[in-house]
Design goal:
By secondary structure, the chain is mainly α. The chain has one domain. It has 3 helices and no strands. The longest helix has 26 residues, at 41-66. The two termini are 15 Å apart. It comes from Kitasatospora arboriphila. This is ABC transporter permease. The chain crosses the membrane at residues 41-61.
Length: 79
């Protein structure tokens, strides 16, 4: 379950990364506020954080998928 959660979070943060790169003023248009007065600083912070989150979650998900599974006490057919 943890691997799926990390994969979904990696996908969501990757989408935020791509959307912010392609449409930098989405915050102003979606929320109707301009927190950085069109300087673009907030957008670059979002891009950097989303990129780091994407890499981090993807790495965690990859580690979770590659981790060997342990067998239950009753064998491979019983949980």
């Amino acid at each position: 379950m943890r691997g799926w959660t990390e994969a979904v979070l990696a996908t969501l943060s990757g989408l935020i990364f791509i959307v912010t790169l392609a449409w930098p003023d989405w915050i102003e248009q979606v929320f109707g506020v301009d927190p950085d007065q069109h300087s673009g600083a907030l957008e670059w912070v979002i891009v950097a954080l989303a990129f780091c989150a994407t890499i981090g979650f993807a790495t965690l998900a990859r580690g979770e998928w590659r981790r060997p599974r342990t067998l239950g006490a009753n064998g491979p057919d019983h949980p």
